Amino acid sequence: MKLATGVMKIANGTLVDGTGSPAVRDAAVIVKDGRIQYAGSAAGALDVGPEATQIDARGGTIMPGLVEAHFHPTYFNVAELADLDIKYPVEYVTILASCNAKLALECGYTAARSGGSLHNIDVWLKKAIEEDLVPGPRLAASGREICGAGGLMDWNPEHMKLGMEGLILLINGPDEGRRAVRKLVKDGAEWIKTYPTGDAAAPDAADHHTLCMTFEEMAAVVAEAHNYRRKVTGHCRANEGIKNALRAGFDSLEHGTFMDAEALDLLLSRDVPVVPALYFEKASIDFGPKYGMPQAVIDGHQETLDGGAESARMILRAGGRLGMGGDYGFAWNPHGDYAKELSFFVNFVGFTPMETLVCATKTGSEIMGRSDEFGTVTPGKLADLLIVDGDVLADITILENRKKFIAVMQGGVIKAGGLATANI
Fold it and tell me: Using the 8-state DSSP alphabet, how is residue 94 labeled?
């Protein structure tokens, strides 16, 4: 991905740098050759000379680009299980994934970690983005997901003879877990996504209190992944599944829904980040009836929402790390609504806007293993920036409105927002 050349000065805005430090009013950010050279009070900024590009933040907010830490690029308008694995051919899903990547960037998300992808499309999408063939967030790919036989993602009845090869790798035992990891590594995955527990979406087979992988399977997956210097995450709702994942050595948890004090202690002792993905639950409760969602499933989502919100509050209060992101791509939770997760954490879960923004920028970059490159507006880092016409700390819902974006930058290159087509 190319970096901008020359010098740029962004001024007349409030700097929210992503570190959690107090906002800097009347701030300036100076970018040189695609990297941040200065970020702070405008009064302390060096003169950049008449040749520098000048960007007016219009009294709004200068902040890091957002990080979507649980991104499903190949999900598109999913209304039933068949939409995930058999509805469209791989060729069309590839096109849909590139459209979703472009949309994420336009929504201010300059980086994303895949939470699972059909046919390893995210591996090749990452390459296309990095080579500037298609626009999209800086991507960490996970490819297909690993699930225990009969677990949450193994939903096609045997008599249909359909298989699940495009979406997941089914395992039954530690040796099959190791084999699946090796296959994913060979195919280019950076993260290994697993399903240690069930979900409210499948109450008859693997509900959100069900364990879908054995500890031995999970430990084998971690050992093999770490051998190849890959990281492991998992869909973890059930409390025992959370503990098993932490004891097995998982590098992050998706959801972490029903945690007790022992699970929290394990989490904190290893400093493992969690991506709760809670707005999906609220959307499922609100819009599920429209799509024929059974009441038992909706009730499960309500329990998941309540438990997940309490776990998220517990983790944050205890000094743990949370990323923002969450299962977008369903008909009731579509791509493009990513920032609703941030508003939800402020207005429902009870986080402050600053806490939420740190989760959505700094912690997201840490989860991706790239916090030395982006995630905060800090000298030396890539100028992956979002300039917003409005005070995000006063009203975080502004981030839901792309029309409020003055510029979305990657490496100092304006990729989206009002200035993307303007003559600056």
Answer: H
For the segment(s) 7-65+375-416, the CATH number from 2.60.40.1120, 2.30.40.10, 2.40.50.1070, 2.40.40.20 is: 2.30.40.10
pLDDT attached to residue 151: 79
* Residue 80, C-beta contacts closer than 8 angstroms, at least 6 positions apart: none
Q: pLDDT tens digit string along 15-38?
A: 999 999 999 999 999 999 999 999
Distance CA 382, CA 210 (A): 42
Pick the CATH number of 66-367 from 3.40.50.720, 3.40.50.2300, 3.40.50.12160, 3.20.20.140: 3.20.20.140
Q: What tokens were used for 229?
A: 């210097």
Residue from 198, 208, 297 nearest 258 by CA: 208
Query: Are 330 and 280 contacting, i.e. CB atoms less than 8 angstroms apart?
Result: yes
Q: Is the pLDDT of residue 166 over 90?
A: no
Question: Among the listed ranges 67-81, 183-197, 224-238, 391-405, which one has the minimum average pLDDT value?
Answer: 67-81
Q: Is 364 exposed, middle or buried (0-12, 13-18, 19+ CB in 10 A)?
A: buried
Helices then strands (H, E): number in the chain? 12, 17
